[in-house]
Model the fold of this input.
Amino acid sequence: MSFHEFLHVLLHALQDSAVVLPFLFLTYLLMELLEHKAGDGVEKAIKRAGRVGPLWGGALGLVPQCGFSALAAGFYAGRVVSVGTLLAVFLATSDEMIPVFLGARVSVSKILIVLGLKLIVAVAVGFLCDLLLRHRAAPLHVEGLCEEEHCHCEKGVLRSSLHHTVHVFLFILLVNVALGFALELLGEARLAAFMQDIPVLGQLIAALVGLIPNCAASVAVATLYVKGVISAGAMLAGLLTGAGAGLLVLFRTNRHLKENLQIVVILLLTGVLFGTLLDLTGLAGALGL
Done:
């Protein structure tokens, strides 16, 4: 790897990580205010709003900005939002898909169809998971996060929020640097070779690529699709699992490893299932994808 490539990976990792910074700070600032300033009435109102959380989460996730998935992960770790809302945001998150599609002159109608499919899947899976899972039962626990981070919340909401933000940002930056080097060595051509002409396996590999918590994953999936290398189903599988930096924030802030792994499995199964159905049922062709 040349020095130029080395510098490119570092700068790209810094850029990816910096995008999430304002969302991280906003997450922790709001959580601190809810915990220390708001009363029981506000917390109860948030819980009631959680009943339609997946609908709002799916709509928010469609905004081409991976920072919203980071915000949702932080809120989930503090039990501000339900697991269904979190999953809806993750599944709907578009990250770099829209810029790649627009750059490749993909029609607006086709982009809207892809976004519509992601929204429908995200909201449906979100409501189903809220019905079946009980992660949302716990109360807000910002104080627990503070004890684990040793951030001295009693010294002020602003200082505590900044402390949390810096810690999580550094973690995301380190992971993005490592992933950047790994993707640079692997290359787009090798990714494509694994995903051609293999039923179901193509969707599975695309879904696994989508799980990589870096915007390069959605760029790779969207680019391979517009080049005709992968099917519409594989594209959908990879974009459904692509939650951007949200997974990094989730594993960094939520100490319930079993919950985190369960969320990853749900993302993976959802991506593979709906991606495969899109191809095998002929729906992709009917929709013009």
